[in-house]
Amino acid sequence: MLPILLFIVYTASIYDELFNLIVLKELEQMLPLVIIPIMFLLGSTDKESTKQVALSAMVISLSIAGVVMIAESVLWFINSGSFLAFTYHELALPFNSGAIYMSFFILVTLLQINELTWFLVNKRVRNVVIVFFLMLLLMLASKLMIITGGILLTLKYYKNIRLSLKRRKVLIPIVVIMSLLLIIPLGIRLKKISNPDLDIVFADKYTYDSPLNGLNLRLIQLRMGVEILNDNNAWLFGVGIDKSQEVLNNKYIKYGIYTGYVGTEDTGYLGYNFHNQFMETLVRVGLLGTILLIVMIIALLFIPQEQRIVSNWVIIVIFMFFLTESVMERQQGIVYFCLIYSSYFPLISQSNR
To answer: Does the pTM of the predicted model rise above 0.85?
Structure first.
């Protein structure tokens, strides 16, 4: 019922022009909140087969995607001579998904890859795939996913890591990864955000060459979100799903943040969302929708792990992901979240299957 209630709240946030094309597009994007839970409710699959199919699909598709991304980067590097072709958004460019989305999919797969039965049979293949995924995670250079992933993967696989170190089986993967890090200009990207310039967050005005990076831009957007809610007295019900991007664009213009050049395809930061799902939901539908969304995530933790296909580790990553991206404003984000949210099986015995 929770995702259906959230969809109702989104629908209720439309104060006028229900059949406006933009409004209908927004509602269509949110339909997975209704459709996917109903699909699971009416389905006849069981938890284990669902988990095995889902994990198999993730491992195979990410392996193929990784090969394609590296091949594309090699071609780009041959033409440009820039090692930046092997990192961040440039690496993820063939799938137009953004580095953090690809990093997220890789991380949640790594956190559950040892639950894939056929994958555990051949240790050599397993080790190659795991090292390949770790390499891709580092190359994509998403700060949040690398930090979060490093902590969670170490906690989850501590015993395995310790045992491998004793047997020295992990030395080769470590050497490979460290060698790649020497080649890939991850350090260049980290250097760019080493000075976050937090003083700029509360500036009265910005110029087109203001030194914005991923961190201070997100903080500026949070500041703008609070101002929008105060200006429109919209804390309770939000400004509406069809108005949120418009009012945010107006803030960009008001503060002089780079908005491109009139008459060209360069629109600067216009169209950039809040890069925080909780603030995005708060501005769009107010406190009621935001509380519903938070309750949805917390509710997953109270479902016994034997009844759901994802572990608590994945739920933590999802929560962190929501803090840095407006996940449900992209089709791949909301569909994946709804698949994870709906895939629990309270009737797990053979007689109830």
So the answer is: yes
**Domain, as residue range, for 286:** 1-44+195-302
Alpha-helical runs (H) found in 111-156: 123-140, 143-156
Report the candidate in 351, 277, 291 with the shortest Cα–Cα distance to residue 320: 277
Pairwise CA distance, residues 56 & 72, whole Å: 24
Tally of CA atoms within 13 A in the half-sphere of 28 that contains its CB: 7
Please check whether residue 341 lies inside any domain of the structure: no
Q: Give me the half-sphere count of Cα atoms (radius 13 Å) on the Cβ side of residue 345.
A: 19
Tokens (6 digits) for 72: 């594309």
Answer yes or no: do 53 and 92 share one domain.
yes
The model's pLDDT over 43-93, given as tens digits with 9 standing for 90+, comes to 888 888 889 999 999 999 999 999 999 999 999 999 988 878 888 888 999
Secondary element (H or E) of residue 32: helix 32-42
> What span, in angstroms and rounded, lies between the C-alpha atoms of 343 and 42?
12
The residue behind tokens 């994802």 is 310
Residues 6 or more apart whose CB falls under 8 angstroms from that of 192 comprise 213
